Amino acid sequence: MAGVSDKARFYLERAAPELRDFEEKEIFSKDEIRSLVTKRSDYEHLILSPGTKPSDFLSYVAWERSLDRLRAKRCRRLKIRNSSSSSSSHASQARTFGIFERAVTKHPGSIPLWRAYLDFAAEVKATKRWRRICTRALRLHPTEPGLWAMAGRRAAQSGDMERARAHFLRGCRFCVGGEGGTLWVEYARCEMEWLGRVEAKKSGKGVRKGVDPLEAIKATEAVQEGDIVMFDEEDEESGEEGELVLPDPDVQGQGAKARPKVFDDGTTKKMEQSPALSGAIPMAIFDIARKQPFFGPAAAEKFFDVFAGFSNVSSQERIVEHVLEAMKELFPNHPCTCSCQIRRPLIGVDVMTAAFPKALRESLARLNDGMERTDDKKALASKMVAWIDMILETEGLDAAIKTVLEHTKRSLEEATG
Fold first, then answer.
1. pLDDT by residue (tens digit) across 178-198?
2. Could you tell me the CA-to-CA distances from 307 to 67, 188, 189, 241, 344 in Å, in that order?
3. CA–CA distances in Å: residue 47 to residues 16, 158, 225
4. Phi-psi region for residue 251, left (φ > 0), alpha (ψ -120 to 50) or beta?
5. pLDDT tens, 47-70?
6. What are the pLDDT digits (tens) for 213-253?
7. Residue ranges of the domains in the chain?
8. Which is nearest to 130 in space by CA: 105, 158, 110, 102?
């Protein structure tokens, strides 16, 4: 264990200047600093010992972050100037990054560690480092749909839907197993969110006075360099270890570093006639997903639930109907299909509006029909009870509607025993 003690002492000595600064500025007392050193020493010996687990590193990180929050709170109370406080914050972040680096080096197969590492980098806005971490994680776990979804959603949030689609499509090629359906559903969700943002800009919502809506859409799609995963670039800041990033097979020729404008003049002119704005891309994602091994009634229902949640998209009804028609064709009497058919009249209808009672009447009529023809009455009843419970949780729900739903719920529970 002598080797472990020497290594632990090495890491503890690196934090000594910061601890002296804490003592000089009276942020922590001598007894508190002694306690901090003891606790940090225990963690260092734990993660350096043989047989350490990923949870040990996560516990160490959680402790370091709680310590940094306490330090920041005391700095504010003691009115310590920003430069000292900022320096301590950067030191704490650097130490946390170091712990994560040691963690993923020792346990490269732990997905929770990589996710926690990426979440921390995103939280502290270390965008270029986030990109390098994600590239390394995807190289080690190319069949992990959650990591591809993180990369795609990050690119979409940064305004580069072209890059986001590239990540999702590349991930879909790798993730062909049972969990691959999650990535396809997330891809569809990302496209629906993009449609919602574009339509909001077209209608002028969230656009400053005097700004053209199409120009606002361009701004929505503006690429923020350094905030997305670039598999095709030679990263000048490729990391402390000098790791390489994955090449992009879609890049042609030289000069790939200079990204083209997301919207050129021709695209702007065709904006309003674009099939993409009428829901063509989400429907295409669903149609291609139908041909994948993972596709089944449950996967189709997940697509339905995702599309049903975007009432701010004008093409929602067309997309939802497309999914429902496919489900009726492939799984006509499955509980998932019956559940979607029952809930269909209420999609896009606010519970607090006058249109809700009429739509609910239609849904309850479909519920009686669905219970008669479904292959599994118990499964369908379970789905419907969960759906009714969700509506009953709405605050300010009309008393008459509440009575009807509670009676329906009791009937379902009694019918299935």
1. 677 899 999 999 999 999 988
2. 43, 8, 7, 43, 11
3. 20, 36, 36
4. beta
5. 999 889 999 999 999 999 999 999
6. 555 555 545 444 454 565 544 444 444 444 444 444 344 44
7. 1-108+115-121, 126-208+216-232+277-331, 351-417
8. 158
